[in-house]
């Protein structure tokens, strides 16, 4: 009985030892597989990071290229030829200077017509012609100047006042349109200079072909590219100045319409004033 019990105990210990070894081997294998998987995952993460860095690098290069706009403009200016590109740039500078001067002048010439007429009528009824003249002197703009010229001749009759207003209105219109002809000249001159630079550049390209004796696509394409830069620059300058020119003409038309309406209202006020006298 004891031997049987001892035999069973030995078999049980052997089975337990074998099971423990199997479990230990399984855990070791799992640990090894987990280590391999971790290494593989780390390797994949490193590769993904390298790929991301490689993808970010072109974006960074694109950002650097986009920030170098002034350098690109400078390079195109040099490629287009310093002489003709300088003339095109000069037309842009002169055209912008004239346009800005006209815009400032026209904005300063804008007058609140309704307020001026109200103040003028009150001053005329309360203080007479001299008070009305003082209101015109204190108001800025061509409309107030026209009113002053009309009030200065009120003693000569309404007809004389009307003629004076019409004549001085023409003078003020000329002052408003002063400088627009020069802006128009710059608008037409800029593309002409660009076309001239293009033609001269094409002549240089054909001279190069003649000197080489053979047609080189690279030389021809490079020469044509350089020649067309001046044309593009001239057209861009003309478009920019055209916008300012149209703004100035629209502003002048608005001021002239206000001048005409205000002149009619002034004559009505003066007629009423003469009737009250």
Automatic annotation (TrEMBL):
The chain crosses the membrane at residues 77-98, 182-206, 226-245. Its main location: membrane. It comes from the Bacteria. Residues 1-24 form the signal peptide. GO terms for biological process: protein import. One of its GO terms (cellular component) is plasma membrane. The keyword Flavoprotein does not apply. It holds the Pfam family MotA_ExbB. Residues 141-260 form the MotA/TolQ/ExbB proton channel domain. It is a multi-pass membrane protein. It is found in: Cell membrane; Membrane. Keywords: Cell membrane, Membrane, Protein transport, Signal, Transmembrane, Transmembrane helix, Transport. Belongs to the exbB/tolQ family. This is MotA/TolQ/ExbB proton channel family protein. It comes from Ancylomarina salipaludis. The lineage of its organism: Bacteria, Pseudomonadati, Bacteroidota, Bacteroidia, Marinilabiliales.
